[in-house]
From TrEMBL:
Protein name, as recorded: MFS transporter
Domain Major facilitator superfamily (MFS) profile: 10-389
An example Gene Ontology molecular-function term: transmembrane transporter activity
Transmembrane segments: 42-66, 78-101, 107-125, 137-159, 165-182, 209-232, 244-261, 273-290, 296-316, 336-357, 363-387
Keyword annotations of the record: Membrane, Transmembrane, Transmembrane helix
Listed GO CC annotations: plasma membrane
PANTHER family cross-referenced by the UniProt entry: PTHR23537, SUGAR TRANSPORTER
Length: 396
């Protein structure tokens, strides 16, 4: 059962608002704020790093608990509540009351982001015709890209007015998006029919392959997400302004990536599009380690930026592809995939930070590790596809 075109697009735009508030603003706006927080002596550098980790820990907790919240209070109510929590977290961070205060609100913002990532798109997409779900998923997750783009453009402008004004400005933006999307969420109880003979979630080996590949993809994204600006500014000696310029390129890529990957998947299928994404990402992540000059670094920044949110609609679409007409299993599988992504992302972030601190500040190894993870994701998917073909499973 699909809603009218106008209501499905209203719900899709509400999904965009959720990903923008929960991930785009609540997480990525912190990246350019970090140096300013340290310079303003709100917190020491070591403490500020833990505040960044608090968001990742909250994201993991939110991803794990999201489905339980949806069962108790309904998905739409849980989404609205988490958008309010993310908004309050941004407003609360305008006051550096104490480390515990800041840590708690950064954790809360991450928790909200994890819940929104698990619930928003699966709540919207059943209302969208299958032929347009790739594009609709791209629009929803474009909110992450918009947040990254704003973190490189709007946040530096707000910082001219001070840290407090910047946090309040971000909170006001999140409040407006929350209010604008409040009545656009689909009502509960609309599910697709469950008449398909396809294998459900349990025992579906191709789902486990997807979890592994999606998690390894998170590992591959970490070098650019955490080290790109510092690599350009200090590793290449080009300075902070150049580092910020490459972060803007990363944001431009993030802005267009979900739409491009969603559009591609609508034409090729999500399985082939996901494999192509792993291949392109492996090359793009490796480029900074090869020392091929600034043009190659620009290409790498834009492409990896594009796939940072662009991989999400591909993974979600792949879940729907593997579990057609099993709405509840799709939600459970997407929750598991998001948890896999969150666990390996947090593990890789801490692991690479530890490696960087103990290898003499050698950046290239970080990008080599990231590219290796992407190649491994592709290899696992291809081997599983060949093995599936050998057992006469459809290879999609």
């Amino acid at each position: 059962m699909h809603a009218s075109s106008s209501s499905s697009w209203r719900a899709t735009l509400a999904g965009l608002s959720a990903s923008l508030v929960g991930i785009g603003l609540a997480r990525f706006a912190y990246t350019p704020l970090l140096p300013a927080i340290i310079d303003a002596h709100w917190f020491a550098a070591s403490a500020a790093a833990y505040l960044g980790a608090a968001n990742l820990a909250g994201y993991l907790a939110g991803a794990v608990l999201a489905r339980g919240m949806a069962r108790r209070m309904g998905a739409a109510a849980a989404i609205r509540l988490m958008m309010v929590v993310a908004t309050l977290a941004l407003l609360a961070c305008a006051l550096p009351v104490s480390f515990i205060w800041f840590f708690s609100w950064r954790f809360a913002s991450g928790f909200a982001g994890g819940v929104l990532m698990v619930l928003a798109a699966p709540t919207v997409l059943p209302r969208v015709p299958p032929s347009r779900r790739g594009l609709a998923g791209g629009v929803i997750f474009m909110g992450v890209g918009v947040g990254i783009a704003l973190s490189g453009t709007l946040v530096p402008l707000l910082l001219r007015e001070g840290l407090t004004i910047t946090w309040l400005g971000l909170g006001a933006m999140a409040a407006l998006l929350t209010l604008a999307s409040w009545s656009s969420w689909p009502r509960e109880g609309v599910h697709e029919t469950t008449t398909s003979p396809h294998a459900p979630m349990h025992g579906n080996s191709r789902l486990r392959v997807l979890y592994a590949g999606y998690g390894l993809n998170a590992v591959g994204l970490v070098p650019h997400m955490i080290f790109l600006v510092d690599f350009v500014a200090h590793g290449l000696g080009l300075g902070l302004h150049a580092g910020a310029a490459y972060w803007v390129m990363f944001g431009i890529g993030a802005l267009i990536g979900p739409l491009a990957t969603g559009h591609l998947a609508d034409r090729t299928g999500f399985g082939p599009a996901l494999r192509l994404a792993f291949l392109i990402e492996a090359v793009a992540v490796l480029l900074p380690a090869l020392g091929l000059g600034q043009f190659a670094l620009m290409v790498s920044s834009v492409v990896v930026g594009a796939f940072t949110p662009g991989i999400v609609p591909l993974a979600l679409g792949r879940v729907h592809e593997l579990l057609p007409h099993h709405a509840e299993d799709q939600k459970a599988a997407w929750s598991a995939a998001t948890t896999s992504f969150a666990v390996l992302q947090a593990t890789a972030a801490y692991g690479m930070s530890f490696l960087f601190a103990h290898n003499g500040g050698e950046y290239p190894w970080l990008f080599v590790i990231g590219a290796t993870a992407m190649v491994l994701a592709l290899a696992i998917d291809l081997v599983a596809a060949v093995a599936g073909a050998g057992r006469r499973f459809p290879v999609t």
